Structures are given as C-alpha cells and as structure tokens.
From TrEMBL:
This is Nickel pincer cofactor biosynthesis protein LarB. InterPro entries: P2CMN_synthase_LarB (IPR039476), PurE_dom (IPR000031). PANTHER family: PHOSPHORIBOSYLAMINOIMIDAZOLE CARBOXYLASE-RELATED (PTHR43064), SLL1489 PROTEIN (PTHR43064:SF1). The gene is larB. One of its GO terms (biological process) is 'de novo' IMP biosynthetic process.
Amino acid sequence: MMDLEKILKLVQTGDLDVEEAKQQIIKDGIGAGPGNLDLGFAQLDIEREKRTGFPEVIFGEGKTPEQLEVIFRRLMEHTDRVLATRIDAAKAAHVVATVGGITYHETARALTWFKRPMLRVHDGYIAVVCAGTSDLPVAEEAALTAECLGSHVERVFDVGVAGIHRLFRRLDLIRGANAIVIVAGMEGALASVVGGLVSKPIVAVPTSVGYGANLAGIAPLLSMLNACSPGISVVNIDNGFGAGYYAGLINKNMSKRT
C-alpha cells in the first residue's frame, strides 16, 4: 500500500502514469476521506485507534465470509490487533483458513488477531460475573473484549440468585475488581444483588435467555434499569461487547491514576 505523497512523486518522476495512479488511489482508499478506507461495501475507519484508543471492531452479523476476509486483511495493515464479534462457526472457518494468525473463540463467537501476543497492559482487573451457563456467550464476549483492550479479567460464572450461596463464595474476588460486568437473563436480579454488596462501578448486561415473559431480554433490561442499588449502568440486550469495552475503559483510566 502506498500513501498519496509517494504516488504523486512517482507520477512526477514518470514512474507511474496518471491512470495507474488513479487506480492505486482507488484501490488503497486514499480518496475516501481522512482516515477512511473505501472498500466499496465498507468504509473502514483506520484512524479510530488514534481517537479512541482502540481500533474499529468488526460486527460480523450480516457480513459474508468473503467480506470479513477482506476487512480483516485491510485492518491488519493498519493496526496491531483486530477483533470481530458475532461470528458464527461457518464464517469463522472461512476467515481462519484464508487469513493467517486468526483465532476463533467459539463461546464468545468472536475472531481475534494480534501482531504481537495479547498483553495485560493495565493494572487491576475486571470481574465478569455471569448468572447462568446459558448466559456464557454474552459473558465471554464481554470478557474477551476487555482482554483485547489490555485488561486482566476474572471470570465468575454460574452464580445466579437461584443459588445465591455460590455468589457469596466469590464475593471477595468480585469486590477486588476495578469494574464489574454483570450478565444475567431471566428476571435480571443479579445486578441489583451485587450492586448492594460492592463499592465498584457495575455494567449490567441483560440477556435474551429466559422463558416467555422474559420477552427476549426486555424483562431483565427493565429490571436492571429500575435497579434500586446505586452505581449500575446498563447496556443493551446481549451487548457483551459494549459492556466489556466500557469496563475496559474504566480499568484503563483507573490504571492511569494509580
């Protein structure tokens, strides 16, 4: 890939004619605007890491395996890590087979690539607390996202309120975290319970797991939004990525202070 200055110099010296230069500019997306890479079917924000501290994340639903392959290859040219969420096994198999160095995280339904080994660059840790085994895909999406942001994650799984004694055995670990992600379906009560026991910020994630009146996650969403316990923020239904990202930012900024 060439930058615009290099292309213009080649045109000036006669080593590249105008039509070739035009095609190169289109190919590399140079004319797509500042920090934007035009792929035709997608506009990649290649300067997002400079603005926000983390590269653009690929949302896999609705994209073809071939589109995912191209997006991965182009992002890999501009960053040292790529995360793609909501990737089913068939799409993952194609991308892993065609692009080197990619790992598929089956439970989290995510793909990752790192130029260098993933490091824990921030002090402290995040606790991802999951109510039930059925909530694991969303919880793992949150945990993996926070890890990609450089945070250590402690997983505390299957500690829902139906067997609340399981939660109390892990309470010291949860209280030691800089941020806590609570993932729960059914009625979503776990966020309120933990919120009344800790002094750390909580990011609550309602899941679509539950029987009919769970309403595909609306019931726990409303429970979490109406939680009596203070210090709870709520993301959208099944949005493990959003919760992990938010918790990662909290831990990153806590690490800066200490």
